[in-house]
Design a protein that fits this description.
single chain; alpha+beta; five-stranded mixed sheet; 6 helices
């Protein structure tokens, strides 16, 4: 049985927006069949500002953590592949998070360090400046990295001074914990949650069929 895609509309400069309610592997397959891909957090900001869809969604941004270290946010996520999605679903169902080697954490941290001279919006990895749950304001580098160049406009239009960030907590120095970012809806303060589980459940993911020149 084919997973149903609901086309929501189009965002100028971004593309056509689709919505699928299914476990993550089925969502990725459905998007692939029509040439779309799971949204990044920056896409969600664009979609909401355009008035196309204001609800929550899974996203393709990847938090990577080790015990005692700052979480690194990295894109694109290797969980958003057929094998990565199956791994995430299995570990979530067992009450755990996917893991990678500490070499992987060192690699994404190295990318974040190498990109420190770039504007946050242009980077592929960034180290979250604080550990644990806290709030982000629009001028913070991690906010600009996650929400893109329209972060300030998003805060202004939604009436926010800050948004909640729920950190991914690494529980070992012997491996890296990885996950995905859940972008909650504006009625829930647009919370960015790095430690959600349940990728095997039926829930919402938006996809974008990007415009080509």
């Amino acid at each position: 049985m084919t997973t149903q895609i609901e086309w929501l509309g189009e965002v100028k400069g971004l593309g056509r927006i689709a919505r699928v309610v299914a476990p993550l592997p089925e969502q990725l397959n459905a998007f692939k069949e029509v040439g779309a891909e799971l949204v990044d957090t920056r896409d969600v900001v664009e979609i909401r500002l355009a008035g196309v869809y204001d609800g929550f969604t899974r996203t393709s941004l990847m938090p990577v953590a080790v015990k005692g270290g700052n979480t690194i946010l990295y894109r694109p996520s290797e969980l958003m592949t057929p094998a990565g999605a199956r791994d995430a679903v299995t570990t979530h169902r067992n009450g755990r998070y996917p893991i990678r080697s500490t070499d992987f954490y060192d690699a994404v941290r190295g990318i974040a360090q190498a990109e420190e001279g770039l504007e946050p919006e242009d980077r592929t990895a960034i180290s979250v400046s604080q550990k644990g749950d806290h709030a982000w304001t629009p001028e913070m580098p991690e906010t600009r990295f996650t929400m893109g160049r329209k972060a300030q406009r998003y805060f202004d239009e939604k009436g926010y001074k800050e948004v909640p960030y729920l950190d991914l907590i690494g529980d070992s120095n012997g491996y890296a914990t990885v996950n995905y970012v859940w972008f909650d809806d504006p009625h829930n303060d647009s919370e960015l949650n790095c430690r959600g589980r349940g990728l095997g459940s039926h829930n919402v993911a938006l996809g974008v069929l990007r415009k080509t020149a």
